[in-house]
Design brief:
This protein is of the alpha/beta class. It contains seven helices and seven strands. It has two domains: 53 residues, no CATH class; 118 residues, Rossmann fold (3-Layer(aba) Sandwich), CATH 3.40.50.2300.
Length: 185
């Protein structure tokens, strides 16, 4: 398994464990000692700490802390992306796009990550169109982050106003590379 795949799989396991712990209180694991210096664990834990995820990944540090808005209705996806950007950028998450103009006007965001399939009256495509019609927000880069992965989907989202596209599930390195390209320009 590649390092990026292993990191993503480990983070997803962390989110599952965290969710279980939040619902049940505690989780006890009886496992043999692992002789890998990259993995640290406790038998009883509130949140599994993996040095492997944070200690051996490519350095994506941004020159200064940038502000990223992530519109995503899935809380696990929000948590995963927060982990990816921890220490690299300030990430704010919202689960709906109804108040997109108010949200974006409130703070100066350097990048928007937009889920396309959102609940409510406004989906990701509508939110992008609303932002692109407003002169104040035309230059904020938007990356469509979506499960739509069929031939032509990327072009469709670029056509409505997204600057780039990444399909779910994605590797940490792929998302951070795309974000860095927009944040450093």
């Amino acid at each position: 398994m590649e390092e990026a795949q292993l990191s993503t799989a480990c983070i997803l396991c962390l989110l599952i464990f965290k969710n279980f712990i939040q619902r049940r209180g505690r989780l006890t694991i009886n496992a043999p000692k692992i002789k890998t210096p990259d993995l640290f664990y406790k038998k009883t834990f509130d949140f599994l700490l993996l040095d492997y995820i944070f200690g051996k990944t490519k350095n994506y540090a941004m020159p200064d802390i940038k502000k990223i808005l992530y519109i995503e209705d899935n809380l696990d996806s929000q948590e995963l992306v927060k982990l990816y950007f921890r220490g690299l950028a300030e990430l704010e998450c919202y689960d709906r796009a109804e108040q997109i103009l108010d949200i974006v006007a409130e703070k100066k965001y350097d990048l928007i990550l937009m889920d396309i399939n959102l609940p409510g009256k406004i989906d990701g495509v509508d939110a992008v169109k609303i932002l692109r019609r407003d002169e104040r927000f035309k230059k904020i880069p938007i990356i469509a982050v979506t499960a739509y992965a069929m031939l032509g989907d990327r072009e469709r989202f670029i056509e409505v106003g997204c600057d780039d596209y990444i399909s779910k599930p994605f590797f940490k390195s792929a998302l951070l590379d795309k974000a860095r390209r927009f944040l450093q320009s």
